[in-house]
Specification:
3-stranded antiparallel β-sheet, 2 domains, SH3 type barrels, 91 residues
């Protein structure tokens, strides 16, 4: 099983290495869409900084350049992908 995981990781890294930065970003966003977990989403632009916690949820994207998610208070949030940071947290 460990050999399979190592091989899969090597193939994934090989694919990533051949992609442009934009393609890598798009792939990263798609991976985030697939994972249900706990996240801290932070939007920072100039003096503005806002953070949200997502518990056992996911973040999705669209072609329009936004992340979409439900926060821990069941509020639907939409933030621009640019200047937004996603961290997986243990909570």
């Amino acid at each position: 099983m460990k050999i399979f995981q190592t091989t899969l990781l090597a193939v994934f890294l090989g694919i990533i290495a051949g992609c442009t930065q934009d393609q890598q970003n798009q792939l990263s966003r798609k991976v985030v869409e697939l994972l249900d977990s706990n996240y801290r989403i932070t939007y920072a632009n100039g003096n503005t900084e806002k953070s949200w916690i997502i518990k056992n949820g996911k973040v999705t994207t669209s072609e329009k350049g936004y992340y979409y998610f439900w926060d821990e208070h069941k509020h639907y949030i939409q933030v621009p992908i640019e200047n937004t940071f996603i961290e997986e947290i243990d909570k």
